[in-house]
Amino acid sequence: MKPDNNNNCVAIIAGEASGDEHGAKLVRAMRQQRPGLFFCGIGGPALKRAGVRIVADAAELTVVGITEVFSRLPDILKGMGIFRKLLKSLRPDLLILIDFPDFNLRMAAVAKKLEIPVLYYISPQIWAWRQGRARRIARLVDHMAVILPFEEQFYQGFNVPVSFVGHPLLDDHLPTAEKALKSGLQDPPVVGLVPGSRDTEIMRLLPIMLEAGDILKQELKDVEFIISRAGSVESALIFSVLDRRKGWDQIEVISGGVEKVFERSDAIIAASGTVTLQAAIHGTPMVITYKVSPVSAWFGRAFIRVDHVGLVNLVADRELAPELLQDAATGDNIAWAILDMLKNEDKLNRLRTELIALRDTLGGTGASERVADLALGMLKNR
Q: Is 217 helix (H, G, I), strand (E, B) or coil?
């Protein structure tokens, strides 16, 4: 797997579905300026479509939570072994890491020993917990490209070279603010269910969302539901959960492109993650929910240093979307939070306006191009 001798070689790792998409945009932006670049690494379907030679599938390596890691440990160790061997044999001119810190920081340490420069794009959420990792990043990473406005100051406090590049979500084809700020409710109202991009999230969260849906059906005269299926999740898994609950056999499952769910929904129930910020910049009100194992939850409560979990609330620095996590993540709680939105159209319209306003704080369009300039500059110095 050797590139042409005249071309630079770039290794890249993206462990999440969202990171896979952002990485693909970056690869395309770099090739716009340098068409001959050779890319290889770990990722998913988006990076593969962008022309990256995939050596390990990210879907086999990604987990959330402390105890959840053990079930995937053999795959994770195998993936580390493959990539360590790739770095030693191929000696790429640049390593680009995207989020995925437990895996990526280990690979950064390997690259450091091999004197391979490291660009870290999309910071792990160490400002929320385990802030001491910033010192490790300062030792191992040559430059951080961050996508949330408060992250730049955080890293400057640890003397880490850092650039705020804006959020790549703003490079998507977004509806105009006027179109996103639709007024009132549809008849009947539509609630979108966005249960996540991992199998474990589907198994934990979708049944709770369906339970909330059953309550909403009882409380509202008419209501419709749609489900978003991430590309990393097999349809069979979604339908296996639906088959266990009476009355959900006719629900529409929308595959690929959660934006379609935003456009058609008056409000959504969403797994905590990047999707909450996606929903916000589309002007879609939401309730955020999440559950991990009790042990993982205990560690989270002990170490988390921020007031909010949902990205939309972190960027806004206040609760624009209710967060119902762990024991609070019940069908009853979620249903009543959604009802509170749907039964107050003035409140719903104000919320849409506040969500759309977050676009102005996220740095504008062109994030992928700005990161591409950073990466190509590092290649030139190399």
A: helix
CATH code of 289's domain? 3.40.50.2000
Distance between the two ends of the chain, CA-based, in angstroms? 21
Residues 108 and 196 in one domain: no
Calculate the alpha carbon distances from 251 to 76, 168, 245, 254 in Å.
35, 31, 12, 10
Q: What is the span of the domain harbouring residue 102?
A: 9-166+366-381
**Dist CA 339 CA 343 (whole Å):** 6
Contact predicate 211/241, CB 8 Å:
no
**Co-location of 258 and 311 in the same domain:** yes
| Residue 379 β-bridge partners | none
Q: Positive or negative CA dihedral for 186, 189, 190, 195?
A: positive
Q: Are 146 and 162 in contact (CB under 8 A)?
A: yes
Asked if residue 172 belongs to a domain, the reply is: no
3-class SS of residue 269? strand
32: which 2 tokens?
């716009």
- The pLDDT tens digits for 331-374 are 999 999 999 999 999 999 999 999 999 999 998 899 999 999 99
* Maximum distance among all Cα pairs of the chain, rounded to whole angstroms: 67
Question: What is the spatial distance between Cα 379 and Cα 286, in angstroms, rounded to a whole number?
Answer: 42
Instruction: Please indicate, yes or no, whether the overall pTM of this predicted structure exceeds 0.70.
Output: yes
Residue 2 lies in a domain: no
8-state DSSP, 228: E
Q: Which of 180, 208, 206, 210 is nearest to 195 (CA)?
A: 206
- Secondary structure (3-state) at 207: helix
Residues 192-250 pLDDT 10s: 999 998 899 999 999 999 999 999 999 998 999 999 999 889 999 999 999 999 999 88
190/112 Cα distance (integer angstroms): 51
62 and 125 part of one domain: yes
Structure tokens, 194: 């966005």
Rounded CA separation 24/67 (Å): 30
The closest of 340, 334, 254, 256 to 288, measured between CA atoms, is 334
Q: Which residues of 263-277 are buried (b: 16+ CB within 10 A; e: fewer)?
A: bbbbbbbbbbbbbbb
Are 142 and 252 a contacting pair, CB within 8 Å?
no
